[in-house]
Write a structure and sequence with these properties.
297 residues, alpha/beta, TIM Barrel, two-stranded antiparallel sheet, 10 helices
Length: 297
Amino acid sequence: MELGVCRWRPDVTTEAIELLLGQGVDIIEAPPSFLLDFDDAGVQTNSERLHSAGIRINVCHGPFSHDDDISVIDPDARAAALEKQVVALRRTALTGAHCMVVHPSGPIAASEAPERLDNLRAGLEVMLKTAEQTGVKLGLENMLPDHLCSRTSDVRAMLDEFDTPLLSVCFDVGHANVGPEDIIEAITALEDRIIAFHLHDNDGTRDIHVQPPYGSMDWPMLTNKLLSMNFERPFSIECDPWNQAPLSVLLREVRSIFAGEMPLETQFNGRTVWSLCPTCRHYFFQSDQGPTCACGA
């Protein structure tokens, strides 16, 4: 089981690369700015700098701002967004990443859904031609409520309609936790087409991207499901470390969860709770040296 981190600032200076390596990062998910702030030569050079240092780009995230939505009603805005997505997809091939994550839409009004869905289909049809040329797959992301593809049935319908291995799924567990469906059932419904995962936590009501396990998700149940899939690619952790800790702590704590080593439990007013360090505000996890938090990391 491999873990990567999402980095939203495309810093490839020697200092930045050494900092990542020093914190145990050897796999990243590259942001849209990595693909769009540089020309083809720049993207290739930056990718080679990372690769030569020992950092692999597993996935790239396609553009997802309001201006990048290929489902929008306005035809000029839609054409501009699609052009940007195609450029990003073509440059993803230069990074060595196996897929580019695609947001089906931004927030939509229910009355717009049929037209926006047609626009999404048309946009994906164009993007799949570039995917075929480059060999880079599209990872259609399950979305939050009030977005296209917020339900697994909608995602599955889109996959079945195109019926190509070039269109698969990036499953975002945080989005699923906010949505109306059971997260394990949602993963099961799509697992034959999932090629990337976004891991992060929240309170079940908002997409706030906090570090596992500092939200409301049932991580023992979720990691059991993920491990049972024998997923062969890295999982992308799509959040910053809890309470501004180093990335090394983020990776260590998430690895502990996957190993079945949840935070240490204690009893409080008749309830079982996790033990929290009053200094660093991180949970205590068991280690070979005994209970440890972020303070000594």
